[in-house]
């Protein structure tokens, strides 16, 4: 087992590029690329799709990354436990989190985090605006979707699946939907965000279809989009964690179940520092270790 190659893969995914991972690890980009190629050859599986614009994990790569990232976190935890600086963590963490993520996920995690670290305080702002943690004096922000901030460090926390949904009433009065191309005949409830693509992407058996249905209603709040879809205004592409109950009770219906939409990554972004403050380090470790255990079964 090549632990160094596994660490390189984790850093590539967390940083979002071969170049950034190479810089963090003190290697050349060519060395990082060669080590991943050797790892893929040894495993007999492709782990990453690489293009000029983006880096995507294959299904095998996603499974391998999840296990390796947990191992890397365990090693980091072991070092932390043995560190001579094991003293009470104190201070205030200043955070900004998208509204829906804070309501659904981060709120409950912060509550349990503060119980585990009674010497800490958290100042949390829920907002969907674009936040610059450096100019606003924040320790970290949560970002939904792919990130490109070169002046920020990033730690991938989870990812969430999406569901294409509509109300039974809307479906009863509109044309049938059997393939992604049918969606252009429909109205959608659009979620306006600086972090998410405006179009919808669907994939099945290696075939990718991009569609951009018309929208009479655009909103920057995903919960509001869900409620508009429930009221029959149009189609909505929603995080699975936000529409689980509605799908179960029948107020929303899932469409095109065989077609996959790209998972949406969830990152923690923070100013690049040579030595990370310990209060932020323990917060990151807590999120990684405890997120899936708080009933968030569709976060990875």
From TrEMBL:
Coiled-coil annotated spans: none
Domain HTH lysR-type: 1-58
InterPro entries: LysR-type_TF_proteobact-type, LysR_HTH_N, LysR_subst-bd, WH-like_DNA-bd_sf, WH_DNA-bd_sf
UniProt protein name: LysR substrate-binding domain-containing protein
Keyword S-adenosyl-L-methionine tagged: no
N-terminal signal peptide: none
Naturally occurring in which organism (per UniProt): Aeromonas eucrenophila
Keywords, sorted A to Z: DNA-binding, Transcription, Transcription regulation
Family: Belongs to the LysR transcriptional regulatory family.
Pfam families, alphabetized: HTH_1, LysR_substrate
């Amino acid at each position: 087992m090549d632990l160094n190659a596994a660490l390189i893969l984790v850093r590539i995914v967390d940083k979002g590029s071969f170049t950034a991972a190479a810089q963090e690890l003190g290697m050349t980009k060519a060395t990082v690329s060669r080590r991943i190629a050797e790892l893929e050859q040894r495993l007999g599986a492709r782990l990453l799709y690489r293009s000029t614009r983006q880096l995507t994990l294959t299904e095998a790569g996603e499974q391998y990354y999840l296990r390796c990232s947990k191992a890397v976190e365990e090693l980091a935890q072991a070092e932390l436990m043995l560190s001579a600086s094991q003293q009470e963590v104190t201070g205030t963490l200043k955070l900004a989190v998208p509204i829906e993520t804070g309501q659904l996920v981060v709120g409950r995690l912060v509550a349990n985090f503060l119980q585990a670290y009674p010497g800490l305080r958290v100042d949390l702002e829920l907002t969907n605006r674009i936040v610059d943690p450096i100019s606003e004096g924040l320790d970290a922000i949560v970002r939904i979707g792919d990130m490109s901030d070169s002046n920020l460090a990033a730690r991938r926390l989870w990812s969430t699946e999406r569901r294409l949904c509509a109300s039974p009433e809307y479906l009863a009065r509109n044309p049938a939907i059997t393939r992604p191309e049918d969606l252009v005949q429909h109205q959608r409830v659009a979620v306006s965000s600086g972090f998410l693509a405006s179009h919808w992407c669907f994939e099945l058996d290696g075939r990718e279809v991009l569609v951009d249905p018309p929208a009479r209603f655009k909103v920057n709040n995903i919960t509001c989009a869900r409620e508009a879809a429930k009221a029959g205004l149009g189609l909505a592409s929603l995080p699975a964690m936000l529409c689980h109950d509605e799908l179960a009770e029948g107020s929303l219906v899932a469409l095109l179940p065989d077609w996959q939409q790209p998972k949406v990554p969830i990152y923690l972004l923070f100013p690049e520092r040579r030595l990370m403050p310990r209060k932020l380090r323990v917060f990151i470790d807590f999120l990684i270790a405890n997120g899936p255990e708080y009933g968030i079964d569709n976060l990875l």
